[in-house]
Design goal:
The chain is of the alpha+beta class. The protein is about 25% helix and about 20% strand. The longest helix is centred in the last third of the chain and has 33 residues, at about 480-510. It is globular.
């Protein structure tokens, strides 16, 4: 098995350059070693012009890894709907009813899917006469206080040369874990999460629902490349935002061609129903960062609507990438010689001896060698740090794909060793140790409590409002009487204004 590790030697030029720039920006004390322009966009978070206006259909990231607690299975996590503000009600975040959310698996390296797991959703509303997402505390997925719910089906479609061989339902009417409205609305969100994990027919399990966005990076690259002086780094821009997540765990033998050929290629797509009732692909994602910083604007929408077996049309975007030239012109980091065959291996074919299938057809897929056992202590840079169970061999939730991808683009595998990165090395929330592994979403009730709240003394805001609304003569305080008198005076004022307007209108009509 090939190892692409590096020990940090032989890079004084790059390290000196970057550290000097950071020191000038006052960040040396933060321990930041390297930055890079334009590559710190989130993986498919608003990556193309058209899909940025349709977040329900926008793939954000795909993860694929051998399950650490069940190594005979493979887990796929795919996320949609970027930048979910937790308190963004009253219409919280749902999967689209008019979409097909597909997880594709290529198990022979021909850039065509042999297996497809299709998720389709249906939204249900209990009471359309309220604006509320929930009408009381929700303690279960079938709680009548959960006013807006979703269910979904999972269909397994087997293909050969893109023609359907068979199809079968492997899950039906499965409940979706809701958006985390807040602690008052969902006092035990973990219980709701557990109830949303359901078995699949034929083995495995599935989950759909809201989760903390697992991708971590600093997105301030768009402010003149980290502030113009490298002063805007080290902040996880996606901290506190949620996504809608699909998680699928299946026996590995179900998805691989054979034990002799254990490499699978994985990508996700979204197909949206049009006015004629036909579905059209509007988004896709496999390998992170390709459509963000490799494809130029003129190709992004076309890439999203196309398929991996047609990716030869985008090959020059990889062999002659824009980013290394920007690194050289802005930071003096010499761009490796073109064509960049090293990038073709990492992003389109898989690394030979690691996760490249035989007779591979170059295509943008996340390639995973399922025969490599999970690491007991994962390294955040994966293969670059000698951990062959990590990126670019699949992608774990903890993998720092931004730093790893930047270092590869900067020439790490072409003899130009570097420490490029954005100084964000881990997610703000810990991931789970069992399926579905993604962290629970941030609650909509986050933030400071109202001033003067002392719940132990029973003097919370609810009690104060209750006192204010207490009828006069019912033992209320002078403040209560004052509020009631003010409300009465206000009502009299409104009545007088109404009478005046009526008199004026009659006078006006009488003069016509």
């Amino acid at each position: 098995m090939i190892t692409l590790s590096r020990n940090g030697a032989g890079r004084p030029g790059v390290a000196t350059l970057i550290c000097g720039a950071l020191a000038a920006g006052g960040l040396a004390a933060a321990g930041v070693t390297a930055l890079a322009p334009e590559a710190a966009t989130a993986s498919s978070h608003r990556e193309a012009p058209l899909i940025s206006g349709a977040p329900q259909y926008d793939n954000t990231d795909v993860y694929a890894f051998v399950s650490p607690d069940r190594p005979d299975t493979t887990t796929i996590v795919a996320n949609w709907l970027p930048f979910e503000e937790p308190a963004g009600g009253p219409n919280f975040y749902t999967f689209a009813d008019d979409a097909q959310y597909d997880l594709h698996i290529d198990n022979d390296g021909d850039a065509q899917g042999e297996l497809l797991f299709r998720y389709t959703f249906e939204t249900h509303t209990r009471n359309g006469k309220t604006f509320l997402y929930n009408t009381g505390p929700v303690t279960s997925l079938d709680d009548p206080d959960l006013n807006v719910t979703q269910t979904y089906d999972v269909e397994l479609i087997k293909l050969h040369d893109q023609r359907v061989v068979s199809r079968s339902k492997v899950a039906e009417d499965v409940p979706v874990a809701p958006s985390h409205v807040g602690e008052a609305s969902m006092p035990d969100y973990g219980a709701l999460r557990e109830q949303a994990v359901r078995p699949l027919k034929g083995g495995g399990q599935t989950f759909a629902g809201q989760a903390d966005d697992p991708f971590f990076l600093d997105l301030r690259v768009f402010d003149l490349l980290y502030g113009g002086d490298l002063s805007e780094v080290g902040n996880d821009t996606l901290k506190g935002y949620n996504v809608n997540s699909l998680a699928l765990q299946v026996p590995t033998e179900m998805i691989t061609e054979s034990s002799e050929q254990p490499v699978v290629g994985i990508w996700s797509t979204t197909q949206r129903e049009n006015a004629q009732g036909h579905y059209r692909q509007v988004s896709r994602l496999g390998m992170p960062l390709v459509n963000e910083v490799v494809n130029p604007l003129e190709d992004k929408d076309r890439f999203n609507a196309d398929s991996p077996w047609n990716d030869a049309q985008f090959l020059t975007n990889v062999t002659e990438p824009e980013l290394p030239g920007l690194l050289e012109s802005l930071y003096g980091i010499k761009a490796p010689a073109e064509p960049r065959d090293d990038l073709v291996d990492v992003f389109l074919k898989g690394v030979k001896g690691l996760n490249q299938p035989p007779d591979v057809r170059p295509a943008e897929e996340l390639r995973l060698n399922t025969s490599i056992e999970p690491a007991a202590e994962p390294e955040r840079l994966g293969v670059l740090d000698g951990d062959n169970a990590g990126f670019p061999n699949g992608r774990r939730l903890t993998d720092d794909v931004l730093d790893a991808a930047l270092q590869v683009v900067g020439g790490e595998l072409a003899g130009a060793e570097n420490d490029l990165g954005d100084a964000v090395d881990a997610n703000d929330k810990e991931f789970g140790t069992s399926f579905p592994y993604v962290a629970e979403p941030t609650a909509g009730s986050r933030g400071p409590r109202a001033e003067g709240v002392d719940q132990n003394a029973g003097n919370d805001v609810r009690n104060q409002l209750g006192d204010a609304l207490e009828p006069a003569g019912a033992g209320g305080s002078q403040d209560t009487a004052l509020i009631a008198a003010s409300a009465g005076a206000g009502a009299v004022g409104v009545a007088l204004i109404g009478a005046g307007l009526l008199w004026w209108r009659r006078m006006r009509d009488g003069t016509r």
